[in-house]
Write a structure and sequence with these properties.
The complex is a heterotrimer of chains A (777), B (199) and C (338). Chain A is α/β, with parallel strands linked by helices and 777 residues long. Chain A folds into four domains: 193 residues, Barwin-like endoglucanases (Beta Barrel), CATH 2.40.40; 62 residues, N-terminal domain of TfIIb, CATH 2.20.25; 196 residues, Rossmann fold, CATH 3.40.50.740; 186 residues, Dimethylsulfoxide Reductase, domain 2. Helices cover 26% and strands 16% of the residues of chain A. Chain A has a seven-stranded mixed beta sheet with strand order 5-4-18-17-16-6-7, with helices on both faces. In chain A, a hairpin with a 2-residue loop joins strand 25 and strand 26. Chain B has 199 residues and is an alpha+beta fold. In chain B, 17% of the residues lie in helices and 24% in strands. In chain B, strands 1, 4, 7, 8, 9 and 10 form a six-stranded mixed beta sheet that branches. In chain C, a hairpin with a 6-residue loop joins strand 1 and strand 2. In chain C, 36% of the residues are buried. The chains are: A alpha/beta (777), B alpha+beta (199), C mainly alpha (338). Chains B and C meet through helix 2, helix 3, strand 9 and strand 10 of B and helix 3, helix 6, helix 9, helix 13 and helix 14 of C. Chain A: This is Assimilatory nitrate reductase catalytic subunit. Chain A: It comes from Streptomyces finlayi.
Chain lengths: 777, 199, 338
């Protein structure tokens, strides 16, 4: 007993309950929230079936079995020995199944005439008719382009294909884009420029063969946990691990070299690395001469980036830049993978290109254990950008600006070329157009821009300015809660379809249960709307299978060739990497093995990269950098994961990561201020972040949204927002902003058992969440 | 050390808590997670440590020894079971005697619960849920030979020092080659001559 | 230890024999048809006493045994919280609230078995020992009187409700036990949690025994009322065998929890006493409460008895133990991947 707890005198406490007694923290309570209270969980062996499928979340696309009971309901998960993940799953994947029969599910269309009204549940007929009439009214009054469509990259590829076709054929609008614009497009742009093909060059399994692995701007341990096994597998065999990240993440902690550079300085760093490679004559001159164009220009440019200059820009020692150059170029087989950390910038494409330049200059392309890849964030981040829901693209990775491509697609779709709209604008630009009244109506499918887009104030204004807004979702997202019509659609486990993972491997998701009464597939809803708009003949799809058949045909002969991929083959093989031009073709897991790219000349087109300052300037008021990112327990806008008890228990709320040098204590309320707004988070004081940088995870909505703070500056080529760096300052605050409950249909409350810890004001123990001994208060 | 057992390597752990969620899916205690995941270096780094029951062998599991109700049984293959539900009186002796900090207790139910090496799964030849899903191999289930086949040259230790006492366990931890002969420090603070804890 | 246990057990058995002898008024009220049952109870007494002595001789149990009974017989405790003990007995041993926290269905089923068995034991043990007698002044009813140790306690009419209940008490007990035990048996075949590590002799035999006893008991009534005693002798034999087996099994299997469970009251009372005085022990590192101070002291003494020479480690909470171990691993074994 400690001194201060000695009772004063022989007083007896007035009332001591008989029960319960005392137990130390972490030993009582089992974190049994689990989404479903423990006493309602049954492990009865009533006969269950295991449905093989994949996870709905990130771009790794781990295989899993869903456990289905005799009543046909999904009730659990069982690891599956799929060769992507070899039975491993992350906490999101394990809890994913709880979405399927979650009490927060939407089970009837919601509708209201104006945003001042409450939602009411209506019939499908009424909701579809109203939506179609609003589309017609807005398009007749303001033109076809006044109605926009925003898709998502967590949809099956069939549905992403349908989003693009629906926009161009049924809505006849140029304004279609998708949330992969917030995710993948910088890498896509760089890939297209350099290689003429937009996908990772090597499969995950090549990582196991490499001698040196460079991970740039990817918190693999938290965002792609299951991919970590490939990193560790490489290290078990002696590979060197280099991590470039402003934070000391779980993989950076044990890396051989951790480059903790300042956010927004990536291309300066990689240019300097290439500078050293050139200076020390570590380039693969023969490879460059045989397979590339533009090397002289690149070499001249990197000459302007000696390590000393970049060391100053990046805030890392010059010696470390030299070390990285020597290790990467001298290892033998080297490989670089990157993710949002270098892509979410106003120079995102340049950053990716500077990594490509390094790989190409050292000859590390298209070999087992040597190459380059980007790790897609969303489940279908790869497949979602291939088949025409992007503003400038048509199915099969075709360009909407290319006359030949336009003609081919019009032929497949059976429309006149004059009817096919021109290229549209990007997602963020569309929000600006909504603000200006250029886009008056919007349908959103599988996205939640109120949490995911930068500069929340602008986003809210844009959406509020629309005259009509419909949203498809299975939970009422923050964005859907602001709409006029919400269509309740299926989860991934209630429909079949394909997704392409970060390796561009197409995998098949299987239907595990019937959707709840009142819920329809996105495919059905789009087809119904098309029918009401007078294009039923172009949308006569019974389901995903029929859409996939059309998609296969539409992609035939293109770079993104799916023609040889069928549902049957996917089920037999466990996944096929495109391009796969015919049904005998084994797929293409590794690109450029023959040294040929997909440009007409077969060469790698190296691009000159010049670093510039981030778009949000630093000054005396905003001297520090704010960077945003993910935490392992949550996914993107959190509409799915913020409702799953186990994940809420693990990480109930956002925080701000602060270096101890700022004088804050753990849990202190800290106001993060940028030119766009401010929000108060509890401080997680840690030495694992640069002193000049703060980090806030972005999965939560306003008023605890990181995207209240971020800047809506875009990369001029990829139009990706600069999420990963903006100027900020921090202040001591009085109280911490509370996380709001996730929205639910009228008359419901967010499933209370899952929300117990949400109002906790403490930061997690570590960025990965609260230690299991941290109990709810 | 048992034949097939769990090997723990905190150096590979990314602290993602997949094991914590997976444990909850195990049919023998569905909805309740027995595994502990601690961030052992808070404020300095994101280092983490998963803790499953170490299934002590020598001395015979301290939890079973201190149990006043003879509720903790040990199977022939060395698995220290969780408390027998009919016997456990919820006194928490095991909770506080365990040198590894493993057992949990449900005070209302007067019942101790802890990791039992997924007896329901291992009996069918499956790996325990935590080691099955662990994305990094920080928790590995198999024999030492299987571990070494996957990770060439890896060494393990299955004895832990708590002060002067050595506890050897059924579950082992990965250690560098030069530390195989040592018992792994159990963390019990050494008390200096002046009586101040050295942590 | 075995010698002491044998001695204690022998003494208890002898006491029981004496109690039977005198309670049945020098065997005057003893029903010789029930001899096998009576002999079984003597064996039961021996077994329970033996097992109990062995049990409470182990360090963990011995210390808690002393503390528990100490708290129970403490006059000070009684003055301070006179209702604590009866409340605990009622909630833990009678209504078994803690089982409700495990599962509502299991609580309900256990309550059925519990009250059924209590009822059955309350009727059959005294009957077997010849402590109860039911006599009719008129020779064959309807007026009966119930006597304990020869003293009249109750007179009733066999056609009244009380009379019916007196006559059919064991049938009522069987009706309570059968659904309860059947539920547990069903659960043992369906629930993977229950099936994990399940052993036939330990987990299933007791349930089967209870069901066999109850069903044969009910069939005896059925036989005497509807079948005019058809099959009665066989059923009676089967019933007797199952009862005798169960009684002898009690000290060695799952049923021993009936004897052990009251220790929970002792333990709770011991902790409750300390909590009343605010004697809470806090973790030496993080200062969160671990348990009551006398409890931690008791545990450390137990650990020393057992030669677990890291007893002071109990003064740290489990979380700190893990954190300190993790930290020691980081600083002394390896910091990172290699």
């Amino acid at each position: 007993m400690t001194a201060q707890d000695v009772p004063l005198g022989p007083t007896v406490r007035a009332h001591v309950p008989l029960d319960p007694s005392i137990a130390p923290p972490g030993t009582r309570g089992f974190r049994d929230a689990g989404g479903i209270p423990a006493d309602q969980w049954h492990a009865d062996q009533n006969g269950e079936t295991l449905v093989p499928t994949h996870c709905c979340f990130c771009g790794v696309q781990c295989g899993m079995y869903l456990r289905v009971d005799k009543g046909g309901k999904v009730f659990g998960v069982e690891p599956r020995n799929h060769d992507i993940n070899r039975m491993r799953l992350c906490p999101k994947g394990i809890n994913a199944y709880q979405q399927v029969n979650h009490p927060d599910r939407l089970t009837a269309p919601l509708m209201r005439r104006s945003r001042n009204e409450e939602f009411r549940e209506v019939s499908w007929e009424e909701a579809l008719d109203f939506t179609a009439s609003e589309v017609r009214r807005i398009q007749q009054a303001y033109g076809n382009d006044a109605f926009g469509l925003l898709g998502g990259a967590s949809l099956f590829s069939e549905k992403t294909y349908l989003v693009g076709k629906f926009a161009r054929v049924a809505l006849k609008t140029r304004h279609v884009d998708y949330n992969g614009r917030l995710c993948m497009v910088s890498a896509a742009g760089a890939n297209k420029l350099a290689f003429g093909i937009d996908r990772a060059g090597n499969p995950f399994s090549d990582i196991l063969l490499t001698d040196c692995l460079l991970i740039a701007g990817s918190n693999v341990g938290e965002c792609f946990p299951v991919m970590t096994q490939y990193l560790w597998g490489a290290r078990d065999r002696g590979a060197v691990l280099i991590v470039v990240d402003p934070r000391e993440t779980a993989i950076a902690r044990t890396a051989d070299i951790h480059v903790a550079l300042k956010p927004g300085t990536d291309s300066a760093f990689f240019n300097a690395v290439l500078h050293v490679v050139v200076r020390e004559n570590l380039v693969d001159a023969a490879y460059l001469a045989a397979n590339t164009t533009g090397w002289d220009e690149v070499r001249a440019k990197v000459a302007e980036y000696p390590p000393e200059r970049s060391a100053e820009i990046c805030g890392v020692p010059a010696a470390q830049i030299e070390q990285v150059a020597r290790v990467f170029a001298g290892a033998g087989k080297s490989m670089a993978w990157h993710a949002r950390g270098i892509e979410h910038h106003s120079q995102g494409v340049e950053n990716c290109l500077s990594v490509i330049n390094l790989c190409v200059a050292t000859g590390n392309i298209g070999k087992p254990g040597a190459g380059y890849g980007t790790i897609t964030g969303q489940g279908n981040g790869q497949g979602g950008r291939e088949h025409g829901q992007k503003s400038d693209m048509l199915p099969g990775g075709r360009s909407i600006m290319n006359d030949e491509h336009r003609r081919q697609i019009c032929e497949i779709w059976g429309i006149e070329e004059s009817e096919l709209p021109p290229a549209g604008t990007s997602m963020m630009e569309m929000v600006w157009q909504m603000q200006r009244g250029e886009i008056r109506g919007l349908i959103g499918v599988c996205n939640n821009p109120f949490v995911s887009l930068p500069n929340y104030r602008v986003v809210k204004e844009g959406y509020d300015a629309t005259e009509f807004h419909a949203q498809f979702d299975f939970f009422l997202s923050e964005t859907a809660a602001n709409a006029h019509v919400v269509f309740p659609v299926t989860t991934w486990a209630e429909d079949e379809g394909v997704m392409a993972n970060a390796e561009a491997r197409v995998v098949k998701h299987n239907k595990a249960q019937e959707p709840p009464a009142g819920v329809r597939t996105d495919t059905w809803v789009m087809c119904q709307l098309a029918q009401r708009l007078g294009f039923g003949d172009k949308f006569a799809f019974a389901g995903s299978r029929e859409v996939f058949e059309e998609l296969r045909t539409a992609s035939s002969g293109t770079v993104n060739d799916y023609y040889g991929i069928t549902y049957e083959r996917l089920e037999e093989t466990g996944g096929i990497a495109w391009p796969c031009p015919d049904t005998e073709h084994p797929g293409t897991p590794r690109l450029f093995e023959d040294g040929k790219t997909y440009h007409p000349d077969g060469k790698i087109h190296l691009q000159v990269v010049e670093w510039h300052q981030p778009m949000d300037p630093y000054d005396d008021d905003f001297p520090m950098s704010l960077t945003t990112g993910r935490t392992v327990a949550h996914f993107l806008s959190g509409n799915q994961t913020r409702r799953l008890g186990a994940l809420v228990e693990q990480t109930p709320r956002p925080w701000v990561e602060v270096h101890p040098s700022h004088g804050f204590q753990n849990g202190d309320p800290v106001r993060v201020v940028t030119r766009r707004g401010s929000a108060v988070f509890p401080a997680l004081v840690t030495e694992a972040i640069r002193p000049d940088t703060f980090f806030v995870p972005y999965h939560w909505p306003s008023p605890t949204a990181a995207n209240i703070l971020t800047i809506d500056a875009l990369d001029p080529r990829s139009k990706i927002p600069e999420y990963k760096v903006c100027a900020c300052r921090i202040e001591r605050a009085d109280s911490i902003d509370e996380v709001p409950a996730p929205p639910v249909a009228p008359g419901h409350v967010a499933y209370p058992e899952t929300q117990v810890s949400r109002t906790d004001t403490l930061p997690p123990t570590a960025p990965q969440g609260r230690a299991t001994a941290e109990e709810r208060r | 050390m048992m034949g097939k057992t769990i090997f723990i390597d905190p150096g590979r752990c990314i602290g993602c808590q997949a094991c914590v969620s997976a444990c909850r899916e195990c049919d023998s205690h569905r909805g309740k997670s027995m595994i502990h995941l601690d961030y052992t270096d808070p404020g300095q780094s994101v280092a983490s440590l998963p803790t499953v029951c170490m299934h002590c062998e020598d001395p015979i599991a301290p939890c079973a020894e201190v149990c006043p109700a003879e509720a903790i049984l040990i199977t022939a293959d060395g698995v220290v079971q969780q408390a027998d539900t009919t016997r456990c009186i919820g006194c928490a002796n095991c909770v506080n005697a365990c040198p590894f900090g493993v057992p949990k207790i449900d005070l209302e139910a007067k019942l101790q619960m802890k990791c039992n090496l997924c007896y329901d799964r291992t009996a069918y030849g499956l790996a325990p849920m935590c080691a099955t899903v662990c994305p990094t191999g920080a928790l590995f289930y198999g024999t030492l030979e299987e571990l070494q086949a996957e990770r060439p040259g890896v060494q393990v230790a299955d004895s832990f020092a708590f002060g002067d006492v050595m506890v050897s366990t059924g579950v082992a931890m990965v250690v560098p080659a030069d530390k195989v002969q040592w018992p792994v420090p159990g963390g019990l603070p050494v008390v200096e001559v002046n009586g101040v804890d050295v942590r | 230890m075995t010698r002491r246990a044998t001695l204690v057990a022998t003494a208890v058995s002898l006491l029981l024999i004496l109690a039977i002898y005198f309670g049945s008024r020098m065997l005057r009220d003893f029903d010789s048809a029930l001899i096998p049952y009576a002999v079984a109870t003597v064996f039961l007494a021996f077994g329970v006493a033996y097992r109990y002595t062995v049990w409470v001789s182990a360090p963990g149990a011995r210390r808690l045994f002393t503390k528990g009974w100490g708290s129970l017989f403490s006059a000070e405790n009684f003055r301070k919280a006179p209702t604590a003990l009866p409340k605990m007995i009622a909630t833990y041993l009678g209504f078994q609230k803690f089982l409700g926290a495990r599962s509502h269905a299991r609580w309900a089923a256990h309550q059925l078995i519990f009250w059924g068995c209590i009822l059955a034991a309350a009727i059959t043990f005294p009957l077997t020992w010849g402590w109860f007698t039911f006599t009719s002044s008129t020779g064959s009813g309807p007026g009966y009187e119930m006597r304990i140790w020869g003293f009249k306690v109750l007179g009733y009419d066999s056609s009244s409700l009380i009379g019916w209940l007196m006559f059919h008490g064991l049938d009522v007990a069987a009706v309570l036990v059968i659904p309860g035990a059947s539920y547990f048996l069903y659960r043992r075949m369906k629930d993977r949690g229950a099936m994990t590590g399940q052993r036939f002799a330990y987990d299933l035999v007791p349930l089967i025994a209870l069901i066999v006893i109850s069903v044969t008991g009910l069939l005896l009534t059925f036989s005497s009322i509807f079948l005019h005693g058809g099959g009665y002798e066989f059923l009676a034999l089967l019933h007797m065998v199952s009862v005798v087996f169960t009684l002898i099994y009690i000290p060695f299997g799952k049923f021993f929890h009936i004897v052990q469970r009251p220790a929970a009251v002792g333990m709770q009372l011991f902790k409750y006493t300390a909590r009343q005085k605010d004697e809470v022990f806090h973790c030496r590192r993080c200062n969160t409460p671990i348990d009551t101070a006398p409890y931690v002291e008791n545990l450390e003494a137990t650990m020393r008895d057992l030669k677990l020479d890291f007893a002071e480690w109990a003064e740290y909470c489990p979380r700190c133990k893990r954190e300190l171990r993790g930290n020691a691993y980081l600083s002394h074994v390896k910091k990172g991947f290699k």
